[in-house]
Amino acid sequence: MNNTVIEAQGLIKSFKDGSGRTFNAVDGVNVEVGSGEIIGLLGPNGAGKSTLIDMVLGLTKPSSGTVRTFGGTPHQAIAHGRIGAVLQTGGLLPNLTVRDTIRMIAATHRNPLPLDTVLDQADLTHLADRKVVKCSGGEQQRIRFALAILSSPDLLILDEPTSGMDANARHTFWESMKTQASSGRTIVFATHYIEEAQNFAQRIIMVGNGRVVVDGPTDDVRAHAAPSQVSAVLPDDVEASSLPGVQSVSIDGDRTTMTTDQSDELARHLLTRTGATGLTISAGSLEDAFLALTTDRPEASFAGSDHTH
User: Fold this and answer.
1) DSSP string computed for 97-134
2) pLDDT in tens, 102-115
3) Given 170, 205, 222, which residue is the final one in a domain?
4) 211 and 163 share one domain
5) pTM of the model as a whole
6) What's the domain count of the chain?
7) What is the DSSP string of 55-82?
8) Could you tell me which of 47, 50, 77, 52 has the C-alpha nearest to residue 62?
9) Are 280 and 193 in contact (CB under 8 A)?
10) For the segment 177-219, what is each residue's pLDDT rounded down to a tens digit?
11) Is residue 293 domain-resident?
12) The domain spanning residue 36 has which CATH number?
């Protein structure tokens, strides 16, 4: 399809551990990413996120399977300036200024964005004359972001982009990312900050043990994998486990908490057909879904795992 940005089929990457045994860091991944999507890539440490990103960027070759970007190889897409990446480490010379760092890398691109535009979009204008070595970890991440957008790429890949940033810097970074997204760029980002994925990603891909555990719209992942909780003080004659849509029940004092994926229906039933009081509803969070889906359980799954476009 013309609007397919990334297509991975049967992607496997094998390594040897310290004892010489082979293991698959990425183990049979099938993923398709369409133009303009904003995707959060989540998973515990060692799940295979960075290895998957490295293959999409052409930094490492698959042991088997294929990965295509914009219908060609990753190297072709990068050569044409269609991919920009912010990786966790590397790529900065400590004794250059921020301005000279960006100017130097800009010289390697055919049609780089104007220097002042890049400094502004990366929130680096006030740091332009500071040496890289004097920049904090979060500021150095913003420099990497500036280098990633120099070619005005169609695809941005971000591996832990806000690592080392404080809360204010993370907020500023994501505001700038919203500007990138509004221009129609495809954005794929891996993050440990689950609230970032919940607030920014339209689609979530969770990986565990090198495999895609769940792939679907963010709201669907949260709703299906992390059911809501309805809590109320129930009359003695109401049996919580027999109420419509209740999956599990816990009792703390006189308050009963019921887990359900039909919170509206359950609340309506409690308020109109019982004498329940003090009712509250709390929606499942993406963090709850993350914990539920990436624990080492073979049955962890999601109805939307066969995400297609």
Assistant:
1) BHHHHHHHHHTTSSSPPPHHHHHHHTT-GGGTTSBGGG
2) 999 999 888 999 99
3) 222
4) yes
5) 0.75
6) 2
7) HHTTSS--SEEEEEETTB-HHHHHHTT-
8) 52
9) no
10) 888 888 889 999 998 778 888 888 999 998 888 999 889 998 8
11) no
12) 3.40.50.300
